Amino acid sequence: MLKVTIDNKTVEVAPGTSILDAAAKVGIQIPTLCYLNLHDLNIENKPAGCRICVVEVEGRRNLAPACATDCADGMKINTHSIRVLNTRKTVMELILSDHPFDCLVCAKSGKCDLQKMAQDLGIREIRYQGEQSHYREDTSPAIIRDVDKCIMCRRCEMMCNEVQTVGVLSGVNRGFEAVVAPAFEMNLDHSECTYCGQCVAVCPTAALTEVDHTYKVIEALADPTKVVVVQTAPAVRAALGEEFGLEPGTLVTGKMVAALRQLGFNYVFDTDFAADLTIMEEGTELLTRLNKYLAGDTNANLPILTSCCPGWVNFFEHHFPELKDIPSTARSPQQMFGPIAKNYFADKIGIKREDMIVVSIMPCLAKKYECSREEFKVNGDPDVNYSVSTRELANLIKLANIDFHNLDEDDFDQPLGESTGAGVIFGTTGGVIEAAVRTAYEVHTGKTLEKVDFEQLRGMEGVRSASVDFNGLELKIGIAHGLGNARKLLEEIKAGTSQYHAIEIMACPGGCIGGGGQPLHHGDSSILKARAQALYREDAGKAIRKSHENPFIKELYEKFLGKPNSHKAHELLHTHYFDKSNQITIE
Amino acid sequence: MENLKRVDLIFGAYTNEKYKVLESSMSKSSEEIINEMIASGLKGRGGAGFLTGMKWKFTAAEKDPVKYVVCNADEGEPGTFKDREILTVVPRKVFSGMAICGKAIGAKKGYMYLRGEYRYMLPDLMKELEIYHEHARRFGHDFTIEIRMGSGAYICGEESALFESIEGKRGEPRNKPPYPTVAGLFSKPTVINNVETFVNAVMIMKYGANEFKKLGTSDSRGSKMFSVSGDTPKAGIHELELGMSLADFVNEFGDGDTKAVQVGGASGFCVPRKRFNDTIIGFEGVPTGGSMMLFNSSRSMYNVLHNYLDFFEEESCGQCTPCRIGCQQLLKGIVAVKKGEKPSSYLDQLLKLSDTMKITAKCGLGQSVANSFASIVENFKEEMIY
Ligand SMILES: Cc1cc2nc3c(=O)[nH]c(=O)nc-3n(C[C@H](O)[C@H](O)[C@H](O)COP(=O)(O)O)c2cc1C
Ligand code: SF4
Ligand code: SF4
Ligand code: SF4
Ligand code: SF4
Ligand code: FES
Fold it and tell me: How far is residue A420's CA from residue A428's CA, in Å, rounded to a whole number?
């Protein structure tokens, strides 16, 4: 152990502890801006670039960045001497001097780490008045880059490269012109971006934001000729409350439904219903391939990979096109819901497809892109018209002056609002495969599960493996969240060394609870854990916890689809993938 | 020229001998080599002036079986062109120095990071490298050298940015500590030295630390290659004993009208005439990586500073706030004062800013902008305003 003195307080720390962490141990919060640490997910950004966290270390000529300086035995540190305070203020003024003064109309206002830091440090004037750097705006189907607001914290770059291993964003140019941009400074929609939105999730400013459809949704709601149907993804209910000041992990399912109804949606449905449907289709595919395999077919195409995450689909289309026949062909729940609403349900209520608008509330930015894909349109009419994030929904609720806290809880409409516990846990890493196992087990073995909780599939470890006893057959399951972790499992498949029968992949660390459209976690990974626990709580409280027992799913098959993987199901609920490895265009 | 001593260590002697010093050094132990280096008092010739022997000793003490020797031949400091000469005239000495270092610290692999603009030298260097490898094999020294081309960025001369660049990443300085002696190239213990430092090491092995120590002062042992430029009739490379006064230097190299000398390039200090007498060129006074730029009274020091700031603003890697934005603010600031858009008191504000950059910037580039900025603004304030 090392002994260091920080602001006259003595603290013992293990070697390798940063000054920042040592100070926190004795209750001293040193301000940071570029630094980010999602402890539970092993994600750290430590470029030591912003220099906001500088402190005085006795005996050193220069100040030291607390985030990136390890303690040494006997170190004496001062975190708030006049020299430190003046310096920190100057550094902050420099950052602000190169930042647009757009706060009044900025998408991030009120949630911006830079704005908060300026307040915390009491900045009232900016003494240095040089220039501001300018860069063109870059809009894609899901993400807007407003580089003028970039403070070069490099969090996005770390996310995109180290965590996601997509490698789209990196530092380019030198000096005052240095920015983070896609390679060759091309636009995002010409890059290999997966739209996972993890860069957006960590950007401290509005340099990276989602494409905002709030007003398009308001317009649709105001159009008397349209029936507007909304679906809400599982992870939304576990996070939306945070936007209204509730504790992370507070479930607000009933209030969310009530708010959506007040907003004027004609039908409030649940993507969880579509998640149950996904399980029916994907689970059936798994069992088909498994039976082939058990019958000795060497081309059984195992492991099967889940396909419900569009960020992940984009990833393999660009990076592993040679594996594009391995994932399940089942569409994501969002895209299963669309055609069921616009065919089955529209028919049921006697309206034409064109007269229905489907809005989805998603924790996800990739779904904004997904719903714009050509294969999910009929004569130009998208199955899902608008995909809005949890954050956008919160804005909608606030715009409509809805008193969220005092809403009475309400229930989803039927039939597309009925769901099981299996559908709920889709929102967290491990949940999709657990849901699939619940159904596949019973279908395969013909037995009833005594215990539906598969604890071995849960957790926050980036790559997990577990096995489930399928009546003597040991079903081997792999789980990865975060695309860098997914890459590891894919490399194994490519090398022919994969030991799994089924693999679940989610693009976002933590799964959808950590999606790019969720309320900002500001670097606190315990929030993600709380959200996951909330979903497991909701699952545990459900009367029905297996997808195939959802009565409305049964009815849908009986009356409309026939059997899982039927011709009709294929037409409406499955998709195909593209080799996009050559689709990068360099301007 | 009585107070200036010209020396001919670097280019002189032994140019044609085939790796004799290297061969004789092979019979010495690691400790013997390192002790000789420490005894010589040699300090790095790349600018920072760290004791070379200590650098080798720290690296030798690391337990890691993989270590590297890196020769910094990125020579990017404005007004410096001595490494180019050394590599052209005595590449053999440079490779020998690297190989001796390899022996001393227990490294098997060396890299030379060659400035992009020096690509034309590559064929000759490769030829010499072949000869080196033959000789190394002949006396059983398991140490190979590879040349990597720089990308034309000044910042890649900074040691940790240089490592990043060799590793195939964007050339950006790392946070320090850890220092290269602990975690350098590929995060392995690494000695990185300037081209000239390696040549000095060879000469120390040849003549012994005692001979070397006879030159220079107690703080600045030996001689140094100077790149003399600007308003001088004797522009070019000159090897001089360290520890001379700037007055003596100007006597020899000035054009009779010298008003200031920029010692150490853009990141060095500007010394005005009134300080020539009491300025020692060496680590006890004003250190230099070799660049000596003379300005006569026809020069506008405002323009000189403007050029330097332009250079820094463009060459900063852009990674840390104080340097990325600070350089630009200093540049725009002096322009605004010159144009009368800001009061002259704004210069004091800018001086404070440069002070802040010195103590907060992540690497030597941002930290040393204040050197030229403060020394020019403070000494030539009228030229900044009017
Ligand atoms: C911005 C910057 C540029 C540098 N460029 C060079 C260079 O071109 N050549 C060099 O030898 N050292 C350069 N240095 C110094 C190196 O970081 C390092 O200190 C030196 O190579 C060590 O060698 P020495 O101990 O032999 O001087 C530079 C430092 C900075 C901060
Ligand atoms: S959305 Fe994901 S893949 Fe695209 S740039 Fe951001 S982190 Fe990278
Ligand atoms: S875009 Fe955002 S996250 Fe990325 S470096 Fe800029 S400010 Fe940081
Ligand atoms: S993990 Fe969820 S939120 Fe993230 S990209 Fe996939 S579907 Fe979207
Ligand atoms: S001081 Fe300048 S060159 Fe050095 S790391 Fe910071 S921005 Fe880059
Ligand atoms: S938080 Fe430490 S340098 Fe940015």
Answer: 15
Helix (H) or strand (E) holding B348: helix B346-360
CB contact under 8 A, A178 and B324: yes
Which protein residues touch ligand 5 with a CB less than 6 Å away?
B 155, 173, 316-320, 323-324, 361-363, 365-366
Flag whether the ipTM exceeds 0.95.
Answer: no
Alpha-carbon radius of gyration of chain B:
21
Q: Name the class of domain B301-385.
A: mainly alpha
In this predicted model, what pLDDT tens digit does every residue of B131-152 receive, in sequence order?
Answer: 999 999 998 999 999 999 998 8
Q: What is the greatest pairwise CA distance in chain A?
A: 80
Distance from B342 to chain A by nearest Cα, in Å?
Answer: 10
- Ligand 6: residue whose CA is nearest its atom 1: A32
Give chain A's domains with CATH numbers: 2-80 (3.10.20.740), 96-210 (3.30.70.20), 212-587 (3.40.50.1780)
- Cis omega (within 30 of 0) on the bond before A31? no
Strands (E), chain B: 68-73, 109-114, 144-149, 190-194, 223-230, 236-241, 258-263, 269-272, 291-296
Fold exhibited by the domain B20-212: Rossmann fold (3.40.50)
For residues A336 and A371, the answer to whether their CB atoms sit within 8 Å is: no
What residue segments make up the domains of chain B, in order of their start? Answer: 20-212, 301-385
How far is it, in rounded angstroms, from Cα A455 to Cα A474? 16
pTM of the full structure: 0.94
Query: How many whole angstroms from A202 Cα to the centroid of ligand 3?
Result: 8
Residue-wise pLDDT for A218-271, tens only, equals: 999 999 999 999 999 999 999 999 999 999 999 999 999 999 999 999 999 999
- Find chain A residues with C-beta within 8 A of B332's C-beta: 129-131
Res. B1 pLDDT band, cuts 50 70 90: very low
Which residue numbers of A are catalytic? Answer: 282, 285, 308, 328, 367, 370, 375, 512
Of the candidates B233, B288, B292, the one whose C-alpha atom is nearest the C-alpha of residue B262 is: B292
Does residue B13 register a pLDDT over 70? no
> Which are the contacts of B257, defined by CB distance < 8 A and separation ≥ 6?
B231, B296, B297, B298
Ligand 2 binding pocket mutation candidate from A143, A160, A187, A209 (most atoms within 8 A of CB): A160
pLDDT in tens, A367-393: 999 999 999 999 999 999 999 999 999
Please determine, for residue A34, whether its predicted confidence score (pLDDT) is greater than 70.
yes
